[in-house]
Amino acid sequence: MANIAPTSPASHQAETRLTLPDNRLLVDLCGEYDRNLAQIEQAFGVQILRRGNELAIIGADAERQRAAEALQALYDRLEAGRSLEKGDITAAIRFSGPSEEGARSGDQLEMFRGGKTIIRTRKKSVEPRTRTQAEYVRNLFEKELVFGIGPAGTGKTYLAVAVAVSMFLDGHVDRILLSRPAVEAGERLGFLPGDMKEKVDPYMQPLYDALNDFLPVRQLERLIEEKRIEIAPLAFMRGRTLSNAFVVLDEAQNTTTMQMKMFLTRLGEGSRMAITGDMTQIDLPRGVLSGLIEAERVLRGVEGIAFSRFTARDVVRHPMVARIIDAYENAGKPDA
Length: 336
Known about the structure:
With 336 residues, this protein is an alpha/beta fold. The protein has helices spanning 23-30, 35-44, 61-79, 86-96, 106-114, 131-142, 156-169, 196-214, 217-225, 257-264, 291-299, 319-331, and strands at 3-7, 15-19, 47-51, 54-58, 119-120, 125-126, 145-149, 175-180, 229-233, 245-249, 272-277, 305-309. α3 packs across α4. Residues 99-105 and 185-189 have low confidence and may be disordered.
């Protein structure tokens, strides 16, 4: 366990010392050529000096404290026998800062430190990288109906499928059903080659990709053949009652109000639903109201339903993706 000790050097900026007893773990914490330290320095605007088995953090009080919290959380993960990846450094930085409301989020940093939000599947373990993702994952495990709304690259669908697989493997649900509206975005389905399955499969490919990340190929093929995992267009849901299933509706911004109501009312006994979508990528005909927009307006505040709102700060793909999203959002705002 690291020991944080604030000091007051003669210079105008205070210093916090972090004592790390295990030199081997200290090397892993610093990273190759101290790149992990450099990433934390840049994020918080502090200077980090390595002195034997201590790290000295120099900077303004608030930033220095957050940097120390991030470093200690990362060191605690190493002490627990877990390795550090690039995404873990970014996650520690995000969890150590203040929330959007300005409040501290020590409980979420504690979850990150102890790995309490890990989603375990057959092929890999997944965990949230941002506060919104952590809240979203908690909702997916605890609530019967969860909406994940926000831009691309924030992990909405990926985390929902991961939780679905985890709950299926643990026996909490008997099957998984993944769906998308097959809305045309510039290319007509009728002009694509092949039968109906071949026409529709390209729309479903992101769902196949997510499943392939979590389940061995042969097991996934067998489960699909046995209908314990289904991937189908939204139109195929009409008239069904989905019991003891984990159901994910992706690209929900492209549903109409009637389609969304139809889908939500498929929820059966012992089932969970996750609805994901991006309000900025609606491909419906002009003048048609998105069912996702209407659902958020009508259902917010209904008991048992949770909404998680993602922003560009939750993007976990290439950092450029967040900058692109911000640029488009700012372009749509009137000049001050």
